[in-house]
Amino acid sequence: MAIILPHVEDANTSYFPPKGEYETFKDDAHYEEMVRGWGLSAAREVKKEFWYKEKTHQRLVKIKGYQAYGDSGDFHTIVIEFQDGNLSCIHPAYLKEMQSPSYGKAMIADMGEPASVSSKNKENKPAALPKDAEDTKTKKKPAAKNAKKEKQPALDLPAEKVHFTAKVKQIALSWNHFNEDNDEVVVLEEVAIQQEDPIEVGLAWCSHSKTLKKYDLEPGDSLEFDGKIVKKKLPKGKDCDAQFIIEVPVSYKINNPSKIKKS
Length: 263
Hints:
Structural class: alpha+beta
Helix content: 10-25%
Number of helices: 7
Oligomer: single chain
Number of domains: 2
Largest sheet: 5 strands, antiparallel
Strand content: 25-35%
């Protein structure tokens, strides 16, 4: 059963205020549980503000609560608050879609060329460069753009559990295709398998499990642990904050690290 909401407008934004009372959050833990359940945050620290985007502008909003609907009450409409104090209702999936960096760009593209670009400005565009100048410009392109990304060398990996040393490079987010959400992972550097003939792995990753979270890992921490290593590429996260983006390709995964020592 859908909730019918009154339609209120100001100069820039259309508001759909909650009809009647709505549920608020009992505490921070309840807020985090609900926000994660709606798929709006996968980071360690759950977001407190979100983007509300329209064709001509975007605004920051906070989640104040929710209204349940349906026979079982399992479906929710989020109640958001704008910075001017106005309340409005929105579906969780729609608010999640608005957090995508590409969302605003797609809407602007649909609008076509901005009205501020007049025909006069079009006429005043600089003339095409002479052919010699174009050739020179092309030749001066940075070589780095054409350089191939460095790949980790293929390794002869042991099948059994082995002892590792490594350093924490980054806590990152990785896209999980099964639950269609980001998972928290630990990216490791200077990874080495310690045996009679040590194997230098370089970069590897593992899930940021409950066991690892107990160690409050931070970039630069040195680790020793046992585990199994497999060749498995780390998928990049989607629509996550810059600090959680994986900047380099990582080809190896360490499963079930145990006997962990941090220094």
